[in-house]
From TrEMBL:
Domain of life: Bacteria
Gene3D superfamilies: 1.10.10.1650, 2.30.30.730
Stretch list, region Disordered: 130-149
Signal peptide annotation: none
The protein, known as: Uncharacterized protein
Segments passing through the bilayer: none
InterPro entries given in the database record: BVU_3817-like_C_sf, BVU_3817_N_sf, DUF5606, DUF6852
Organism name: Barnesiella viscericola DSM 18177
Domain DUF5606: 2-47
Residue ranges annotated for the DUF6852 domain, each copy included: 50-120
Length: 149
């Protein structure tokens, strides 16, 4: 699901990929539902390609959003990002992702993460982690069975 949700630099909010054309994408705003073009020269990134820095390996954004969802019982984040100070924001992320890299993850990144999460929950886009393992096992077994025949 996160592969089709996009962040476009210079444009507020998140967008859903609707269609692709030669030199542009057609996107739909999650807030307003309005469709508009996003051109190749704009910085467009899929949420599925984003990861959060940790002390060991980077953690995909979907896993972090899923952790927030568990902490908030599927609801919006209770912390007000406009009024919260930097220590409260860092403490919140530490609850969700204890080993995040405190030097490379900035307060603005935490605010953006929380605002994205709230927007995704508001719009009903809460399938943050795809169930790859359960689907991949039968396919793998079928492929192995076909090779041995």
């Amino acid at each position: 699901m996160l592969k089709t949700i996009l962040s476009i630099s210079g444009k507020p909010g998140l967008y859903k990929l609707v269609s692709q054309a030669k030199n542009m994408l057609i996107v739909e705003s999650l807030q307003t539902g309005k469709r508009q073009p996003a051109y190749a020269h704009e910085k467009i990134i899929s949420l599925g390609d984003i990861a959060i820095f940790t002390d060991e390996d980077d953690v995909p954004l979907g896993e972090v959003l899923e952790s927030i969802k568990k902490k908030e019982n599927g609801g919006k984040v209770s912390l007000d990002i406009k009024k919260a100070d930097s220590e409260a924001l860092r403490a919140y992320l530490a609850d969700v992702l204890p080993n995040f890299d405190r030097e490379r993850v900035y307060v603005t990144d935490i605010k953006k993460l929380i605002s994205w999460y709230n927007l995704l929950v508001e719009t009903g886009n809460t399938d943050f982690v795809e169930e790859k393992k359960a689907e991949a096992e039968p396919e793998k077994e079928a492929a192995e069975g076909a090779e041995t025949k």
